[in-house]
């Protein structure tokens, strides 16, 4: 119903236009409605050769490039390369002032030496405490075991000697007493003999007591004291071990600080991590460089790439591995489609296709604008103007002209689009006549008056 209304309105408008514009340019007749049908442009379907069509352009870029930057801040004292210089992997790019980093390294070395000395002292303390524990353990064992056989024998001998001396002193004292009573010795001599007897008796008591004590073994107090000495020795050893552990940790921390200072010093020289050409230089001698601030941009220009904005209807033609003709100032080379980006540019509706080309002998440079097109020479296909194809959903169609009537004909689109023409892979044959101008105003079964012409 809606189509009928639109058709009626269009017919009225076209009738008015015919009356008002009888002197109009003959080219406008394609929009006029006559009694014989709507006037449209037609074209006869034929096969045409596919040729390279340089319809896309893009800017050359290195396939691989990187930003060279210092990993530590400082003042640049020397830049070794300039824009355009070729650099090898490991080549020196620039240097920073190293005074501050050398000072930090010296301090770290001293700190590591002090920490090592503390560790050595802690290890020596462990040796001392270990020896003390061993002595305390031996003392406790000896006390608990009691005297050895040799000690008992010595004490027994001492008792025997003391008893023999006591017996002799007894005899001497008795004889001295008789002689004193007879007046044959003085009182002083008699008292000396009696005192010698008393001393001999005391010696027997001491020797006998020592022997008894030895035979009875160590007392609880003696064992307790020896055990306390062993506990103190063990506690001292544990403290020494803890001190060593702490000193070892401090030493490792000092070594880490030293390695960090060495690493920072090594990073005052900026090396190239790629082989290529210096593309940009962002800083000069004497300037302060922040950590991560770009100093150079390096790239490999032996292989270049160009991003081409592919219309979404043509993306299927640009498959990875497809050969592409790339042109610059009349010089042409071959490129290879490397990849098709997965997203569409919201602003343009295009999809980027990356083409890679060998630049070893060309001498082309990043930043130059090249033109590119698919190499399609050697094939004859049916091509129809883009405006002849009408899309409704996923079934594109054209209008064939049969005996003055427009017949809606479903077609299959091929992979290629060139010179604003679609490749038709099915639905049309050579010799068919199709509407190429005014198709958007037609309906299936409309009468038409055909004006032949070659599609643009």
What features would you describe in this structure?
This protein is α+β, with helices and mostly antiparallel strands and 456 residues long. Among the domains are: 123 residues, Beta Barrel (conserved putative lor/sdh protein from methanococcus maripaludis s2 fold), CATH 2.40.420.20; 82 residues, Elongation Factor Tu (Ef-tu), domain 3; 62 residues, RNA polymerase II/Efflux pump adaptor protein, barrel-sandwich hybrid domain (OB fold (Dihydrolipoamide Acetyltransferase, E2P), Beta Barrel), CATH 2.40.50.100. Helices cover 39% and strands 31% of the residues. It has a 6-stranded antiparallel barrel with strand order 4-13-16-15-14-17. Helix 3 runs antiparallel to helix 4.
Give the helix tally.
5
The helix content, as a percent range, equals 25-40%
CA radius of gyration is 57 Å
On the 0 to 100 scale, the average pLDDT is 83
Shape: rod-shaped
The CATH class assignment of one domain is Mainly Beta
Structural class category: alpha+beta
> Would you identify the CATH architecture of one domain?
Beta Barrel
How many individual β-strands?
Answer: 24
How widely separated are the two ends?
A: 34 Å
Write the CATH fold name of one domain. conserved putative lor/sdh protein from methanococcus maripaludis s2 fold
Biggest sheet strand line-up: 4-13-16-15-14-17
């Amino acid at each position: 119903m809606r189509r009928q209304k639109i058709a009626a309105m269009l017919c009225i408008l076209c009738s008015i236009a015919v009356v008002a514009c009888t002197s109009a340019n003959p080219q406008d007749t394609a929009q006029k409605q006559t009694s014989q049908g709507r006037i449209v442009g037609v074209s006869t379907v034929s096969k045409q050769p596919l040729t390279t069509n340089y319809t896309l352009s893009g800017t050359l870029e290195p396939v691989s490039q990187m930003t060279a930057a210092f990993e530590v801040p400082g003042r640049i004292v020397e830049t070794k390369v300039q824009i355009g210089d070729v650099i090898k992997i490991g080549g020196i790019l620039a240097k920073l002032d190293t005074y501050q980093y050398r000072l930090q390294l010296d301090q770290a070395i001293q700190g590591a030496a002090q920490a090592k000395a503390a560790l050595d002292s802690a290890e020596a303390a462990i040796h001392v405490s270990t020896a003390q524990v061993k002595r305390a353990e031996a003392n406790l064992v000896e006390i608990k075991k009691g005297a050895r056989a040799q000690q008992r024998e010595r004490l027994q001998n001492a008792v025997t000697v003391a008893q023999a001396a006591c017996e002799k002193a007894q005899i001497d004292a008795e004889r001295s007493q008789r002689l004193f009573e007879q007046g044959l010795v003085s009182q002083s001599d008699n008292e000396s003999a009696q005192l010698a007897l008393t001393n001999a008796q005391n010696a027997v008591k001491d020797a006998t007591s020592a022997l008894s004590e030895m035979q009875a073994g160590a007392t609880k107090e003696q064992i307790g004291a020896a055990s306390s000495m062993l506990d103190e020795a063990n506690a001292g050893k544990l403290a020494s071990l803890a001190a060593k552990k702490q000193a070892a940790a401090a030493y490792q921390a000092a070594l880490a600080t030293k390695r960090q200072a060495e690493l920072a010093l090594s990073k005052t020289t900026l090396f190239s991590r790629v082989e290529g050409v210096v593309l940009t230089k962002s800083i000069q001698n004497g300037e302060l460089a922040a950590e991560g601030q770009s100093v150079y941009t390096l790239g490999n220009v032996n292989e270049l790439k160009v991003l081409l904005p592919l219309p979404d209807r043509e993306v299927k033609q640009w498959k990875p591995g497809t050969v592409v003709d790339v042109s610059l100032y009349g010089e042409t080379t071959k490129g290879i489609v490397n990849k098709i980006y997965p997203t569409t540019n919201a602003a343009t509706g295009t999809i980027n296709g990356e083409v890679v080309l060998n630049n070893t002998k060309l001498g082309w440079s990043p930043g130059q604008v090249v033109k590119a097109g698919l190499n399609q020479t050697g094939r004859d296909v049916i091509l129809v103007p883009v405006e002849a194809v009408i899309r409704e959903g996923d079934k594109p169609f054209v209008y064939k002209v049969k005996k003055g009537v427009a017949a809606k004909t479903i077609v299959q689109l091929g992979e290629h689009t060139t010179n604003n023409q679609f490749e038709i892979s099915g639905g049309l044959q050579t010799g068919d006549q199709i509407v190429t101008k005014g198709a958007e105003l037609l309906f299936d079964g409309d009468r038409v008056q055909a004006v032949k012409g070659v599609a643009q």
